[in-house]
């Protein structure tokens, strides 16, 4: 048996797609961890699907088992994403965008692949936007406060100002 026969695949595209889908599964598995933030986990998983989609026009044909597992995990995550994104995004929008991501993993190709890819990008961006805004707000926006304090200290004092 040669070395090539002993490997699962020697095609770098297949291995690349499988690697991205493994990242999807790993990320979505983190949803069970109470320390995980749904928005951040899903944004990472969506970006991994997008990377896989950049490597092949048909993810499912390239890595069918991995694509089906990832699609099932995305579908199962929809309620958690809808809850995490409320009230910023309606549940209908979450399900539509998550469906677009799932469509990239689905076996049948259709004329909407580019649209699905763009909707996936929108979902990843909106999730990341909400995640980062919430994280900054929870910390009290320390950088914004520091800049405002610095500006106040650097501002010239009016001549008629009194210190009490």
Structure in a nutshell:
The chain is an all-alpha fold and 164 residues long. 73% of the residues lie in helices and 0% in strands. The protein has helices at residues 3-6, 12-29, 38-55, 59-62, 64-85, 91-105, 113-138, 142-154.
Average pLDDT, all residues: 90
Order of helices and strands: HHHHHHHH
Estimate percent helicity. over 70%
In angstroms, what is the radius of gyration?
Answer: 22 Å
Number of helices: 8
Q: Would you count the extended β strands for me?
A: 0
Residue fraction in strands? under 5%
Tally of structural domains: 1
Computed structural class: mainly alpha
Broad shape? elongated
- Biggest pleated-sheet summary: none
Low-confidence parts lasting 5 or more residues at pLDDT below 50? 1-7
Straight-line N-to-C gap: 88 Å
Question: Which structural traits does this protein have?
Answer:
disordered N terminus; 164 residues; single chain; 8 helices; mainly alpha
